[in-house]
Design goal:
This protein has 292 residues and is of the alpha/beta class. It contains 10 helices and 8 strands. The strands form 3 sheets. The chain has a 4-stranded mixed β-sheet, with helices on one face. The protein has a two-stranded antiparallel ribbon with strand order 2-3. A two-stranded antiparallel sheet has the order 5-6. Strand 7 and strand 8 form a beta hairpin. Helix 5 crosses helix 8.
């Protein structure tokens, strides 16, 4: 991506160096998209069903208020570059969604992106780095431990700066869903549904976020010419790497579609492509789609 020297977002909150004084849990965190990859990797290496592990993580609670201690944090040169890249991507998503919301007669409320190391406290509860990147609708913030990007490349083979940008754009896609009321409606529907039906609704929400990530990529390419040769392939590779079917096949040797919560590799690639090829939010209504 052509990103050096470009605008950085001002909506970055750096909490690296903070330490929670006790063990952390996950009360209501909106695990989404690539943000679940680290949890899934734990399952792969321990022989567990990734879907079951994700469900268990989502049910954990923090059990009270954690005490946060702030200490000094010395970043490496590599971390500094990742921080700058993350700030650039967030700023570019802001440009995209401010423009699209304004065209629709709406106001885009920019999310804050929180950088953390080890563990973090959010309005959705407390989380360790193993959760991966996540979005919390309670405080409208995206949370990322930059060490995740190393796992993305080393353990999933999804390297490249655009794969990293896709991570951020997907989580911002969940923020867009929150602003549009989609997340709240879907959560209400899931509470009234059976487990299988709730899983299917979760898949549709994740695929829509993938489509929204594709819309950002379309806008970045058409309006600002930020993409280089191979960038879209990096994004598609990342989407393919985290399909429920691929991860289940690796961990348990078979696929259980009823337990999908994020969509198959083919579905994730398809919906990212849809957003990228059209740049049209109306094409991202995964909830109305007959087939995914």
């Amino acid at each position: 991506m052509r990103w050096q020297g470009r605008k950085q977002s001002e909506n970055i909150e750096d909490r690296r160096g903070s330490r929670l004084s006790r063990g952390v849990g996950l009360g209501g965190i909106g695990l989404g998209g690539i943000g679940t990859v680290v949890v899934i990797l734990i399952a792969l290496y321990t022989g567990q069903d990734p879907t079951r592990l994700l469900q268990n993580v989502e049910q954990m609670t923090g059990g009270g208020q954690a005490q946060v201690e702030q200490g000094p944090y010395q970043e490496s040169a590599a971390e500094a570059q990742l921080r700058e890249f993350t700030g650039f991507v967030l700023a570019d998503t802001e440009e995209t969604w401010n423009t699209l919301f304004a065209a629709a007669g709406r106001q885009y409320v920019e999310p804050t992106l929180v950088l953390f190391s080890g563990a973090v406290e959010s309005a959705c509860g407390q989380a360790e780095s193993a959760v991966g990147p996540f979005y919390c609708p309670g405080d409208q913030k995206v949370y990322i431990d930059l060490s995740f990007y190393e796992d993305l490349q080393a353990k999933l083979g999804a390297g490249g700066d655009f794969a990293q940008a896709y991570v951020i754009a997907h989580e911002v896609g969940h923020h867009v869903q929150t602003l549009l009321g989609i997340s709240e409606r879907n959560q209400a529907a899931r509470r009234q549904a059976s487990e299988v039906e709730a899983n299917a609704l979760s898949v549709r929400q994740e695929l829509q976020a993938d489509c929204f990530a594709g819309i950002w990529a379309h806008n970045a390419d058409q309006s600002r010419q930020l993409l280089e040769a191979g960038d879209i392939e990096e994004g598609l590779n990342a989407a393919n790497a985290i399909g429920d079917d691929r991860l289940q096949r690796q961990s348990q040797g078979y696929v259980s579609p009823d337990s999908f919560t994020h969509g198959s590799s083919e579905q994730r690639v398809t919906w990212f492509r849809r957003g990228f090829s059209t740049g049209d939010m109306n094409q991202c209504d995964a909830f109305a789609a007959r087939t995914l």
